Amino acid sequence: MSNLAVTFKTPTEAVFVGESSSVIFRTPLGQITILPLHEPMVGVIEIGEVKITSNGSTKTFLSGRGIFKIAKDELTILTDEAHSPSNLTIDQIEEAKRKAKLLSEQSKDARTTAYTTAQFEKSFRFLGHIKHRSRHNTNLD
After folding, report:
1. Strand (E) positions, 13-129?
2. Which of 42, 60, 131, 137 has the most CB atoms within 10 Å of its CB?
3. Taking the domains of the chain in order of start, what are their residue ranges?
């Protein structure tokens, strides 16, 4: 079976670059699984998990919003933020959530309010993923 060439990047780093047998993530219409020989398409990624399976093991990342493009067994994912769940602590996420909420309450313009609301939502979703995994003793990577 063929593999996908996957490039998963944020503005500051290459999160994953390599071969994969499948990639799963959320879109505005629901979860999608990208497999080799997938039809070409471009779309939006929602905040949530990105699961990349390679050589029989799956790596999970928490991702912000972004875009993806699949063409000729090459998947490119560009998001504003991505983390390995094992590198995040509940305290870090709670602090980010607190800062976003405070900034939102102090903001005077629509642009700042929209930005801080998005940051708050992202922190809330990341926190939910971490708490869910820790409650169910799920491997974080």
Report:
1. 14-20, 22-27, 30-34, 41-45, 48-54, 57-63, 66-71, 74-79, 82-83
2. 60
3. 4-83, 89-135
